[in-house]
């Protein structure tokens, strides 16, 4: 192809789009008198070798430009190389072109382009699915000339060595380009092979390439890799990302500001095959097995990159995700743009070929502001939506959001400090207020980077969350101390309108060695008439609980209409007019308890059961209680009591009746119970009067020795109901027959 013989520039254009299939061999550009341009009009025209010949040859001394063309189906099987384009010695510029499905057979190189001399400039071009057989450079091979490859994509090309690019000899500069999914079958350098020349790789992404050695780059002679990303490549033998095989003094391989991490098969960067190692220029992100030691080097096997995609710019790139160790970790002195032409953001360059524009983190409105009582969880999670500021980056899966709260003072415990994003691009944690009152700020950030942060404004209130678990032996009501006293738990239980509130005790506090709960001069009053309330001193592993009136107040009062159960409690040292330990106007069940050391100035030293009240006492001990009048242990004053499997001992009615039990106008059923060593003026064990009734079981007999033992029972006359009630005109006779002392 000579165009014309003048020295003026010639441009060949096409009148209509379509495919030109060569039938008479290659198109040879041989005109040396002036530059020649072949313009396909933006890939509207394809020139095909038809699978039988090379497409273009640029002869020595020629200046040629191929632009806007698709160069396809060239075949240089018999002509040594350059299936699509062979630059034999001139100056060739290939721009805005697609070079695809070309073949260089045999040992010929450059399935897409072979530079055999002269200079080739390849810009804004895609080389894909080209093959160099057993030769080198499925996409581009350089053997004696120079090649400058800029803003170009080389993908899915195959060769024996250098699936994407093979530098046999000469100089190659690759800038702003992407080499992806190229293959060196049974050979070296899936992406780039450097045999004897020099290669400079800048702002370039090399990913998905495969080879036996050097999945991304294999270097025998000398390469410089700067501000580039080498990840996701595979080597079956060694050097999954980069293999350095320098063999001669003076050869050097320099890597700076680049990612060489996340590759598969051997170390990400290996120099085990050569005699001279690489030079670490610093600010690199290497896999942990590499362990770079220069200034600014970072080690991680997880580079934190999005899949290869269109995130702006002329070529596909791998965007940086939130939490990537490459984010803002590059050389502070490097102000050059990235592969897409994006300049430094946030003052410091990122490591690799991609400069992130950053991320916007938006907290969920429900999570801020909010407050919670000290020691409790906040009602709403701390949730944040994350969006990238780079175009096309809509899926941040694999990115990391870091959550943080103040280390001291009012703060919150977080359910996690690191959350990996999924396709929802949102992250959340739960927060629990600590014991300090105050307001503070929790944060969510892109991998801990303070430049990309969302804030949650939280307050720890001085109001404790109500609880049924007692965590202190102190008898206090303090909504700011983070503790729950028995009195506070009872107050909370009395608010329930459904369910069965059960008060339990923290077993780490109530472990058997704790001090008793000593009341501060005021009884514990159970008032809930809607649902039954239980106090269980042995639930959840607690070792039992002692509640003391400290001789200044009654211990428990069960109001009329209340149903309650007291289990595993020791009730001691209460003091009142009636019912020093427990005063029952409602219904109470006492199980596995001890009622001891309580006093009453009138009646019921241990327990007083009023008219309308009922007490069931099982497997319990009532001992050492005192009254100045009646019912040293238990006084039944018109109510009812059932005592089973229990012991009443050493109780005293100093000036009255019923040292153990006094039944006055009510009823008592006592089964399998020991009543012993109780004293009174009348009825040391049991006294029944004023229409009261009692029964005991089993009935004593010599044939069947009873379990119950009654000591010193006596018939007595009645007594007034209270210190101020009038005496009956005719004191009634006691209904109890003379008791028989038995033992069993």
TrEMBL record:
<feature type="domain" description="Right handed beta helix">
    <location>
        <begin position="112"/>
        <end position="271"/>
    </location>
</feature>
<dbReference type="InterPro" id="IPR012334">
    <property type="entry name" value="Pectin_lyas_fold"/>
</dbReference>
<dbReference type="Pfam" id="PF13229">
    <property type="entry name" value="Beta_helix"/>
</dbReference>
<dbReference type="InterPro" id="IPR039448">
    <property type="entry name" value="Beta_helix"/>
</dbReference>
<dbReference type="InterPro" id="IPR011050">
    <property type="entry name" value="Pectin_lyase_fold/virulence"/>
</dbReference>
<feature type="compositionally biased region" description="Low complexity">
    <location>
        <begin position="732"/>
        <end position="744"/>
    </location>
</feature>
<protein>
    <submittedName>
        <fullName>Putative extracellular nuclease</fullName>
    </submittedName>
</protein>
<dbReference type="InterPro" id="IPR059226">
    <property type="entry name" value="Choice_anch_Q_dom"/>
</dbReference>
<dbReference type="InterPro" id="IPR006626">
    <property type="entry name" value="PbH1"/>
</dbReference>
<feature type="domain" description="Right handed beta helix">
    <location>
        <begin position="541"/>
        <end position="691"/>
    </location>
</feature>
<feature type="region of interest" description="Disordered">
    <location>
        <begin position="718"/>
        <end position="744"/>
    </location>
</feature>
